[in-house]
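Quick check before the chapter quiz. The format below is the same one you will see on the exam, so make sure you can read both the input and the output lines.
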Amino acid sequence: MSHVQTTSSLVAHARSIANLKFQNNSGSPNADKVCAVALDLSNLNNHYALFSGGPGFQELTSIVSNGSSPGAAKVTITSRLEAFLRSKAGGGFSDDQIKHKGYDPHGRGAMNCAEPKMYYLLRYQLNQSLRNWVLIPFNQNQSQILYNPPCKNCRRWVYQHFHYLSAWVARNQAGMSALVK
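Here is the expected output.
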């Protein structure tokens, strides 16, 4: 099977997962909301999907707190993600770029994206090797679920940490510009 066939089937599978996530979303429709889907290449039935922004952070907090104090979970998630995003491996962001406005024209900080939330879930909560996971983000435009490559904030680190097919998908779905930092 070629990389193109592999990525096409991975994208179709991830799109169906994102579609369910958007359908089950109780929040108001938001064309800017991203759903990051992570697929375990060793078992495609093992997958996770998280939204960007507040809804994704709330869901991650609920998973991490597991019935205990959500406040403590929020502090842990925030401190670990901020430390990662400040590091060279995490893109080398300043505090202002993490919290307010990073490199992407969407004008939000790097912490707001769905990708760092997925990074935290897989790496810290589930103790997974990110190299075994393909990250495929989507957004919803009316009723369509569209591939949405990592933004310029996330491109600074996503392709270094997740399976190389994450970059291959981005290139095939959105062109070479989806790889430019």
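If your answer matched, good. The chain has a mean pLDDT of 91.
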